[in-house]
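Batch 3, record 17
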Amino acid sequence: MADAKRPNQLLRNLNAKVAAIPMVATALVVFVGCTIWTIVHSFTKSKLLPKTDFVGLDQYERLWKTNKWLISIENLAIYGICSLVLSICIGFFLATLLDQKIRFENTIRTIILYPFALSFVVTGLTWQWILNPDFGVQKIVRSLGWESFAFDPLYNQDIVIYGILIAAIWQGSGLIMVIMLAGLRGIDQEIWKAARVDGIPKWKTYIFIVIPMMRPVFVTALVLITAGIVKVYDLVVAQTNGGPGIASEVPAKYVIESMFKNQNLGQAFAASTMMLVTVLIILVPYAYLEYGGKRRAK
Amino acid sequence: MQNKYNLEGPQGTKPRKRLSGTNIMLYGTLLVVAFYYLLPLYVMVTTSLKGMPEIRAGNIFDLPVDITFEPWVKAWSTACTGLNCDGLSRGFWNSVSILVPSVALSIAIASVNGYALANWKFKGSEVFFTILIFGAFIPYQVMLYPIVILLREVGLMGSLWGLVVVHTIFGMPILTLLFRNYFTSLPDELFKAARVDGAGFWGIYFQVMLPMSLPIFVVAMIIQVTGIWNDFLFGVIYTKPDIYPMTVQLNNIVNSVQGVKEYNVNMAATLLTGLVPLIIYFASGKLFVRGIAAGAVKG
Amino acid sequence: MNFRNALVATTALCAASAVSAADLEVTHWWTSGGEAAAVAEFAKAFNETEGNNWVDGAIAGGGGVARGVIVSRILGGDPMHATQLNHGRQAEELVEAGLMLDLTDIAEEGGWRDIVHPVSLLDSCTVDGKVYCVPVNIHSWQWLWLSHKAYADAGVDVPSNWDEFVSSAPALEAAGKVPLAMGQQSWQSSGAFGVMLVALGGPELWTKVYAEKDADAAASAEMAAVFEAAAAARELSAGSNVSDWNLATAMVINGEAGGQIMGDWAQGEFAVAEQVAGEDYTCLPGLGVNEIISTGGDAFYFPKQDDPEVEAAQKELAKLLLSKEVQVNFNLKKGSLPVRGDVDLAAANDCMKKGLEILASGNILPDGNQVLSADTTGQLEDLMVEFWNDTSITAEDAHKRYADIIASAD
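Prediction for the assembled complex:
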């Protein structure tokens, strides 16, 4: 860069460094410091107040023997994979539809994106209401004459997590659609012309030419979705509060309940450390591929 | 039959027929999609305009027979949690007073961060940035409790400014990324020319970068306004009932059932809570899309 | 000089206004109709005292949610001035950490040890001989609430004990009613099970399991019988799709459900709905089998403050909560029993009178919250809510997991 040759580089860089103090403080004190603090305390038997009487891996042993935690992890896996795949597919599909030079594009885009402006609490309450078997979809279909129709995901242990998924997709797919659409618009028109000249059908062009070109867009979408998945909490609290029974529990809820309701900080910290490990398992290979790959390319 | 006829007609000469089969499929699909996305809004609005007897008797997709604004009035000004019967109105103003400083502070800090990272790289800056981005993925639960202690130590726990700081911290990764990518995408020549003219760190930031980055500021604002307005977790943990934001009050009102569950009031309260981000979104819809194209995608 | 004087005067004025205000922020989780009416009695009495003002900090969503908010605020160094908690072990560590106001002087001055009945309630507030909380009411879990309308519609008599309740269930089901209303929240599942344990397994078994954490008793055949009964009750509650306890109570009030196992706070809901005990509904203490009640309840703690004026107001509120008049007014609305044996409850209805009689006869147990840690309580709640909702878990499975939890309980 040009500034490397400047004589007063130190002073100017000082300005940049001063400006970066909040960032550095956040990175070190909050993201690194607090994380380490939590990990350290996950090896203690802290109850209501954090203490430092270490008990080794006891909290982790108990965690992995607890049914509620196992169900939480399973739910997160189902929810995570489904919402990742569905959001990306639906987002991309809707984006290609909107990219067909259609009329009312703005209107339709606005309709698809507006749920993104609503909170998970609002989303959860709304869908709880629509999926309520006594008032919502089930009752409507039954009143149309299909008496045996059953669609009560929020009251059925086996499918409750999909009931939450419906709401989550409703809320989040608009954003993915917009990102994908922006990516599609960024594709050079020449490529379409070339494909048409070569007689390649439209769907083939999308799958074999356009999607590979949009790799960075997909990565952005992927990152945005994954960041949201592990954090899912408000939606579950508002929509089912973990029920029926404990069928829709999620890890974030387990942590907060252990922390405040059951007054068992050690257990809460062990659970949150496991959440962190889950994130790292997903993130580290990705970061290695991204950064490692780039470095080699240079 | 019209469409079938058109399909069999000579292809290629008139590529944009109004009623071709593909078009009908296309608009049909879009209609179904729009229906799915609009349904909950429709249900919320109609339910909030019905009286309770009508809700119990009818189904949720019926239009209201007797339109009543009672539920809205109640949700706004008289719904109770415990002894506080002032509805959502207090939460609304609390949310506003949390929102304004949080959005301003987080965007100010993140834009400067992004600018420093894009144009004034210093030793270690990339390391901190990487930590910051990792921070976006760390589940909040990991940091929730230590932050209680941090806030206690600086005396901000339970205060409005404590929550502002928390929002600034957790908004920082995504906003910094956004700004860094945007500033990196600006032509390098601009920056170099300003340097030749002798402008410094802040000079370039205020005179060159800021005027050029209105769209990205709008995007950042939309992200922050919706994010902070919709926050529930931080609001419930780091504040006290006096300054509970609107989402927490919404949850309180919906969960405080005194007698019967008043779905109409709940729906009105839900809509009221969602109104601010919705308005902002509808008002700035195009900029939002343009900004995402500029920021997120080119990264 | 003028300027300085003005400054001093302004400061003094600010200080003075802070003193005379003495606003006390009080947090609690009483948000249902009956509860809110009851807490209003506290607020009214406190606002009538000189210069004091009750700032209500109600937190919705039940004790599980509210306790988190309360505890994190106390730990965060910005505590409320007074807060509801279930006395017993929930606040143990907060007291030990020195975060709660010591009320021993006013307790001795007011002779609390003589007036609080049963005195075990005051013991739960006492740590190392010092008093840290004010018990305000006695709540007992062991009640079965029955809807006269539901039984009339089904054409059978209102049962007088649990066995009759179970055998009358088919008739209710035939009439399209849910025999047993159950809310889906975990504390309700766990509480209902505890009631069945006391009523069907007997108080000795309860004491061994909960108070003494006797692993053998928890794994015993008597315990297995209780689980079988609970599995049967689970069948009766199928079709009860509500979440909040008061919505389940509403099913009983409307005659949609035959009965509900719920604590005596349910009475507040019947009162709000203007139903009369003995005419519209029946209450069976100890499920009509073992007439025993637990004497848990709510208590108020006063987190330590720096301001001596606030502390004075806190103590004033503490005294007020135990005064005769407030005790009567509050408990009549709440449906709970007063913590003083020396007040006149002429206005009490049938159910409260039954409770008072049992209390006087001494057939009492401590409450689960007084003997179990929050951690163990939470584990039991998780198990029970899973058991009540997932019919694939057999009574044996649940019993085994239950015994494990008790064996490792603290």
